[in-house]
């Protein structure tokens, strides 16, 4: 997210009735600097390096506001804390139960499932919020298939 994008996001905050504070801007800038998903605690650490008075509660409130405004999204990657990323980088997550690797996949992977669920039930699925667990290619290749299973898991 460039400086222009940070400004656009801060304008969304103002348009949504919020204040464009230094701490909120710092949270956005920290998210931009992270090359991966980040926990609120990791984001707070980045923010506090430049703004030591910004506390974790402020970071959580900023993230919740940004999520309501569609600026950021959070996801549950396995059993750990929520991870945050910019909404413009929306994608889905596959998490390896063996080594913890996270594989990111595009929206197109879930489109057939989303359409099927909508057609069958009328339910509108949002798979961005959760991750699917299994085994990454490396771990699956190293693990012999269970009795009655083919190596592809079928």
Tell me the CATH architecture of the largest domain: Orthogonal Bundle
Number of helices: 6
In the CATH scheme, what's the topology name of the largest domain? Arc Repressor Mutant, subunit A
Strand residue percentage: 5-15%
Query: What distance separates the N and C termini?
Result: 41 Å
Model regions low in confidence, pLDDT < 50 over at least 5 residues: none
Helix content: 40-55%
Radius of gyration, in Å, reads: 19 Å
Assign the structural class, choosing from mainly alpha, mainly beta, alpha/beta, alpha+beta, or little secondary structure: alpha+beta
Q: Give the neighbour order of strands across the main sheet.
A: 4-3-5
Q: Which outline best applies? A: globular
The tally of beta strands, per DSSP, is 5
Question: What is the CATH class name of the largest domain?
Answer: Mainly Alpha
Order of helices and strands: HHHHEEEEHEH
Q: CATH homologous superfamily of the largest domain, by name?
A: Winged helix-like DNA-binding domain superfamily/Winged helix DNA-binding domain
Give the number of domains: 2
- Main sheet record: 3 strands, mixed
Average pLDDT works out at 87
Outline the fold blueprint.
Blueprint lengths: L2 H13 L6 H12 L6 H11 L5 H13 L3 E4 L7 E4 L5 E5 L5 E4 L5 H11 L9 E4 L2 H6 L12
Parallel strand pairs: 3-5
Antiparallel strand pairs: 1-2, 3-4
Describe this structure in words.
The structure is a single chain. The protein has 154 residues and is α+β, with helices and mostly antiparallel strands. The chain has 2 domains: 89 residues, Arc Repressor Mutant, subunit A; 53 residues, 2-Layer Sandwich (Dna Ligase, domain 1), CATH 3.30.1490. The protein is 43% helix and 14% strand. The chain has 6 helices and 5 strands. A 3-stranded mixed beta sheet has the order 4-3-5, with no helix packed on it. The chain has a two-stranded antiparallel ribbon with strand order 1-2. β1 and β2 form a beta hairpin.
């Amino acid at each position: 997210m460039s400086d222009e994008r940070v400004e656009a996001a801060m304008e969304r905050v103002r348009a949504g009735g919020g204040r464009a504070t230094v701490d909120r801007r710092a949270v956005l800038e920290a998210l931009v600097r992270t090359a991966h998903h980040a926990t609120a605690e990791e984001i707070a650490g980045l923010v506090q390096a430049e703004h030591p008075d910004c506390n974790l509660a402020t970071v959580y409130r900023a993230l919740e506001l940004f999520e309501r405004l569609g600026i950021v999204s959070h996801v549950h990657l396995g059993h750990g804390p929520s991870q945050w990323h910019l909404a413009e980088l929306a994608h889905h997550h596959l998490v390896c139960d063996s080594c913890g690797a996270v594989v990111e996949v595009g929206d197109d992977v879930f489109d057939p499932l989303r359409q099927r669920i909508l057609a069958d039930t009328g339910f509108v699925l949002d798979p961005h919020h959760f991750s699917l667990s299994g085994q990454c290619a490396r771990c699956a290749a190293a693990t012999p298939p269970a009795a009655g299973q083919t190596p592809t898991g079928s």
